[in-house]
Design brief:
Two copies of one chain form a homodimer. With 315 residues, chain A is an alpha/beta fold. Chain A has two domains: 133 residues, 2-Layer Sandwich (Nucleotidyltransferase, domain 5); 168 residues, ATPase, nucleotide binding domain (Nucleotidyltransferase, domain 5). Helix content of chain A is 36%, strand content 23%. At the A-B interface, helix 8 of A face helix 8 of B.
Chain lengths: 315, 315
């Protein structure tokens, strides 16, 4: 038994055949023709799927799709995806003209959460929170092995939980969201601020101009013991830790899984986060603690998680 | 078909027979004999239940219990309840010696959330968030007409979501929790602070000494147009609104229901909250908005909601 998993991104669309264990048997990709519009993109996807698999194969049980933006997963419609320039695109319905199999669509961060929990680093757990720490902060919630997307599949906007009322401005228009403190963009902002304050910091050697600062600058220099860099990292860890503790108090997950660019810091980041959260957990000794893990499916998370949309329904 | 709903409080235990529509047919109460210990209290409950209903009645389908503290709802055990001085009390098991019917136990705030959503002001909705604004801030989460308690029934600690990293100290040991801004205690703290700053405020007429300040002081004087009182109310509304918007972004509930002492302010509070939240909702025009309601079951919420633990399982 296998599924097709589709990961729609602004640059490329990845399609893979995924087996029941979450292994990709075969995969291919196509450039996302944003200017071509939804019909052209869906035509490209349909043709790519048919080139990979015989739609009549009885072992082929369905298609899962992860797509950026606001999705109505009940109908398989993309309500709006800014980087695809899509609005009200009935994705599942249009793709069904090419392949007559069950099709499920969800938001890309949700899909990655499902992939990591079903087949990745979280596969020992049934209840997890997934956070992608990239340009923004995306999130996914797994409750009892199922994706929880919020009512009308419009929740799980975990990056837009305010951690500091009246705090840093966020892309969403509010102030003080977790995204404004825990995204790679926020890390870079704080790194630059600190570099301007400390002209002697090692960070100026790592990134000789402010334009060259990236999400690694502070972390790499902090590992060398640079005081200013350590301050940036501690600041980042503090806000990320506070956000994770909030989710712990709401969901009491068995594990929080971190994905996205910043999680490339691996154990260096994880140990600091564990230290931060250890003494700040809510409640008495019997309150279950959460594990902190880094995502392990990498670039394949989208394809595998998308397939998980179909597999998790079969359970 | 009917259930017994039991509301265990630190002062008294309320027991009622509740029908399928959430109406209380008959009720009674007994003083909570905290010093007598768990066995004495459970004996009191058992006798009270048997005085209200024939345990052999075939229309009597089960017993639901709302209890303060940390509950393991899978086993019906009270892990810890500070104000009852209980620790690891197998409540369901012990009560089953008196009445051989299905028994379910949950946290009191969770139970009130279920009651309001099944039978109270939220009965038109399937997905709600319930907040009790009292000495602390308690919470309950209803997803698709079912109580969601978090993994191991230890989540839904909605009052302990940090809104201000490094903010006001909270009873839980962290700083900046919603409880430290949105409880009646926080409202009283801010009222006193403002009164000390403004000796001419009308609030000094309403509450001539700081010891007389209560949760109504600022609200009542704000209705009279007192500037200092309005500032306190706006501060309270702002933090409560920010907290509610956070829950909206995570769960996208159809409604947020407010209970507890502060919600006695009714529409005066609700309209201010709606105004605050209106322009701060996340996302584009298609994102579902949430309604803001005040609880309507009052003192009976505990009994009715507890019965709901049994009824919601029958659905």
């Amino acid at each position: 038994m296998y599924c097709i998993g589709i990961d729609i991104g602004g640059m490329s669309i990845k399609v893979g055949i995924v087996d029941r264990d979450g292994h990709i048997i075969k995969k291919d990709r196509v450039v996302t023709d944003v200017e071509g519009g939804p019909n052209k993109i869906i035509d490209d996807i349909g043709k790519l799927v048919r080139s990979l698999i015989d739609p009549k194969d009885r072992d082929f049980v369905g298609i899962g799709i992860g797509c950026p933006g606001a999705i109505n997963s009940a109908t398989g419609t993309v309500d709006r995806a800014y980087n695809l320039k899509w609005e009200n695109v009935p994705l599942a319905e249009l793709l069904a003209r090419y392949i007559n199999k069950p099709i499920k669509v969800s938001n890309d961060a949700n899909v990655a959460a499902l992939g990591e929990t079903m087949f990745g680093v979280g596969r020992m757990y049934s209840d997890t929170i997934f956070l992608t720490l990239g340009t923004g902060v995306g999130g996914g919630i797994i409750i009892d092995n199922k994706l929880y997307e919020g009512n009308e599949s419009k929740g799980a906007e975990l990056g837009h939980m305010v951690l500091v009322v009246d705090g840093e401005p966020c892309s969403c228009g509010r102030r003080g969201c977790m995204e404004a403190y825990c995204s790679a963009s926020a890390l870079i902002r704080e790194t630059k601020k600190m570099m301007e304050r400390d002209r002697n910091s090692l960070m100026w050697k790592y990134s000789p101009t402010l334009d060259e600062v990236n999400g690694k600058t502070a972390f790499e220099c902090s590992k060398q013991g640079d005081g200013a860099a350590c301050e940036v990292v501690n600041y980042y860890v503090k806000y990320l830790g506070e956000g994770m503790l909030n989710f712990a108090n709401i969901f009491r997950p068995q594990a929080i899984i971190l994905g996205g660019g910043v999680c490339a810091q691996g154990d260096y980041l994880i140990y600091k986060l564990k230290d931060y959260c250890k003494d700040r957990n809510y409640g008495f000794y019997g309150t279950p603690r959460f594990d902190i893990l880094t995502a392990q499916l990498g670039n394949d998370a989208g394809i595998i998680g998308a397939a998980g949309l179909i597999f998790s329904d079969l359970k």
